[in-house]
Hints:
10 helices, alpha/beta, 9 strands
Amino acid sequence: MKCVYLNIGFWLMICFMGCDTNPKTIDVQGHRGCRGLYPENTIEGFMYAIKLGVTTLELDVVVNKNNEVIISHEPFYHPDITTFPDGIITDDNDIKKFNIYTMTFEEMKRFDVGKKVHPRFRNQKKVAAVKPRLEDLFNTLKDKVIRYNIEIKRVPAEDGVFHPEPEVFVDLVMKEINRFKLEKKVTIQSFDIYTLQLMKNKYPETELAFLTDELCFTFEENIKRLGFLPEIYSPGYDLVTIPLIRLCHKNQVKIIPWTVNNTGVMRKLIRWNVDGIITDYPDRLIKLLDQR
């Protein structure tokens, strides 16, 4: 009988090693607003994400010809989401033809990014929409209680071609954040190490998130490359393990994986004690959290 009790105790210990018995608050981050439900990175999508109950809006920014900060995942108009003016047809051979860095905002208004059926998110609600400026979003949501997780989309080889030099890029983004007095409500995230280092040196009070999708670097190696501990470590969800979560928490770093759309994976990550989840379907995540 004693042996039976020991075995039961052992398996209970194993079970609880991978989960937290006290539910914690999970930061629900709507990826590009709520890309599974509404067109990505649009005012309409962000508004719907807030209606659902997200705690953070995740979004991407680029820069246009007039140095305005534009909300967009690519620095060009991707044919998957764009209805081009005058019946223009594009394909993969000229995918970067319409470079936002060479366009004014007035020119950008000719391109719709909300009416076309997305090949991977066919159930999105279709609405007429344009790529907004960051200031447009901040103005629209000025009375809302919401956080922002803003990715600076810098690729070193594209400096001066699809976006400004990183020193200018960072300052343009922070100028808008400071103008709306949102310093305490914003996280800046990036895959680009130099961008994060610039942010740390120039804007040390801003919360930073290190984005990674690389299998070849460990947490320790990434932190060594970065040169400091960011507030948030944000790996692709398939890179997340219980030891990685514990290592992040041991170093007082939050871990917020991306982009999690499968409810089974959501359940696992919640059980493993992540600090937040970035998802195209915040409705699914919120439903799971409400069931706890």
